Amino acid sequence: MKKYLDKTLSAQQRAQALVDEMTVEEQASQLRYDAPAIERLGIPAYNWWNEALHGLARSGTATVFPQTIGMAAAFDGELVRCAGEISGLEARAKYNAYTKHGDRDIYKGLTVWAPNINIFRDPRWGRGHETYGEDPYLTSQLGKAYVYGLQGDKDTLMTAACAKHLAVHSGPENLRHEFNAEVSDRDLEETYLPAFKALISEAKVEGVMGAYNRVNGEPACASSMLMGKLREWGFDGYFVSDCWAIRDFHENHHVTSTPVESAAMALKAGCDVNCGCTYVNLLAALEEGLITKEDIRNACVHLMRTRIRLGMFDDDCEYGDVPYTVVSCPEHKAASLRCAERSMVLLHNNGILPLDESKLKTIAVIGPNSNSVATLEGNYCGTADGYVTFLRGITERFSGRVLYAEGCHLYKDRISGLALSGDRYAEAIAAAENADAVILCVGLDATIEGEEGDTGNEFSSGDKRDLSLPESQQKLLELIKAVGKPMIIVCAAGSAINTGMTPDALIHAWYPGSEGGTALAKILFGDISPSGKLPVTFYKDADKLPDFTDYSMRGRTYRFTEDNILFPFGYGLTYSKVICTELEINGDMAVVTVENAGSFDTEDVVQLYISAPAENAPLRSLCGFSRVKLSAGEKQAVNIPLDKNAFTVVTDKGERITPHGKFTLYAGTSQPDELSENLTDLKCIKIEIEK
């Protein structure tokens, strides 16, 4: 038996043995994302590029979960872990089926490039909906949960998760290939790096992907500072470039002059596999003396180690018998529905919700997102074997008549190309006039909010210019409001939106996955209570934010500003009234007594925030959370683990210290800020802790 097949050896030993049987040319060939077969060693071809941001993506049928930002709104680590486990299981099932038939193409491997744990620092960033929001602690906790789910709990990895994009990366999209993100030591330690550190040192994530931009002058995929952090945190997986990012070294960043120099720079820094084509120049770099054979060998060992950890060379792999039939099975779709139910955020309600069916004979469902599959999907998505749009969910749930009108195009001024501007407004007005209540389904989708090159709004490369709805939808809202019927706005978007008006009720639905319409209908008609919370701040006006290219955290997010806020981070209403009545510390846990003082059974999220006795500390920081389920009148004590860094602050030099003085710990179902208190009519409770 060949040494690399000996399972009594460590993955590192097996990988070294395998790589040492390769020629240097063969080793170099394995550093491409589309690695060829080495038939003489029994190594099949392997494509490293696969996606599983919120379900297995780009590989045909799969369970489609809510987009990541919606998952974040659930504030539920166990739920996110469940989604990760299902995504990993379906990736395994498909991998088993594909390899049986000799299909080793892109999007069919076990190295999934998820989760995206960049900080959603600016609401204009088009890719923000791929993240877990603006808070480093929430991002860390949910990112770890997703990694645990994807990688499984056996000796063999179910899939290899990948933390991306290291680091200081959150737009603008149209500058990402040339942009230099300038960031302070404090912001690095306090905001941009904690989630990467947590996923590496605690969740043992197998992969890390670099970013396109430079960070303080260095390309992120060859940054001595960032690579040093990986070593400091004990990373022993593989590092992959973002796709064609190494080409940017010479074409856009101009830190090298040729593809050969770029390949050498990335490899020497610690980039093991190139998503792109620049590593075809590695042998030329070797000939020119820019790299050594040992540099190539080390990277190849890292990659073979990951493949061995995935059981790719073992006939008795622990996941080798996962059947294809688990893909999009009823149990998995039920989990997607649970995620959608917990993700939607009720931002305003004058009492109209839940709807009273006994008083309604006809409902008008109006708007471009009413019957849209794209609205459910988000980006980096799989293909569901069925979709429940908002219209379908409402129609199936409501016993009366449903009138439907598209109303307008998502962003163009007409739907029919030969028609006049506003060609569907009259139909929408007629539907509203003949209904007892109107549900307006507006917002965005991934065709105009997303990654550079994947969207139709090429004028901003996927980013948003402002926080308003497209003009076509703004006019639709004004026309329908003028009809005077009770109006509920359901906004589907992956980021902060200011609709510009106060309807009778406002729900932010994100991109809720294949079962989103069912979840929305259950909330509208009171089958369940809404319980999502905002994982990002909803601002009033983007023009009042710092410049998009300014990576300082001053004036950004709930931790560093109280100005220009429409709806705060952590905010979200239910149909009941959950209050926190007692708070105490027991070791590294907070014990919070919560009570459902309302008349509706509900879930809610208990949130812990801390304020530090230091001049430059954040206004407050999330340091714990727990989702609770309470029947009307029920009271229970909840144990919530405290962030291990709760009683620390970060100095301007990037050092984490514990200042002397009194910390204030708050517990509530929202932040302890004045706006949250006004919106919820509830106050957080607090205690002081001397350090």
State the major sheet: 6 strands, mixed
Q: Strand sequence of the main sheet, in spatial order?
A: 9-14-13-12-10-11
Count the E strands: 25
CATH fold-level assignment of the domain at 340-542: Rossmann fold
Structural class: alpha/beta
Q: Which parts are unreliable, with pLDDT below 50 for 5 consecutive residues or more?
A: none
What do the pLDDT scores average to? Answer: 97
CATH superfamily of the domain at 340-542: Glycoside hydrolase family 3 C-terminal domain
Report the total helices: 20
Helix content: 25-40%
Radius of gyration: 26 Å
CATH class of the domain at 340-542: Alpha Beta
Instruction: State the separation between the terminal residues, measured CA to CA.
Output: 60 Å
Level-2 CATH architecture of the domain at 340-542: 3-Layer(aba) Sandwich
Beta-strand residue fraction: 15-25%
**Overall morphology:** globular
Short summary of the structure?
With 691 residues, the protein is of the alpha/beta class.
What does this protein look like?
The chain is an alpha/beta fold and 691 residues long. Among the domains are: 10-33 and 169-295, Glycoside hydrolase, family 3, N-terminal domain (TIM Barrel, Alpha-Beta Barrel), CATH 3.20.20; 340-542, Rossmann fold (3-Layer(aba) Sandwich); 578-690, Immunoglobulin-like (Sandwich). It is built from 20 helices and 25 strands. The strands form eight sheets. It has a six-stranded mixed β-sheet, sandwiched between helices. Strands 20-19-24-25 form a four-stranded antiparallel β-sheet, with no helix packed on it. Strands 3-5-8 form a three-stranded parallel β-sheet. β22 and β23 (656-657) form a beta hairpin. α4 packs parallel to α5 (136-151) and α16 packs parallel to α17 (471-483). It is globular and about 75 Å long. The model has no long low-confidence stretch (mean pLDDT 97).
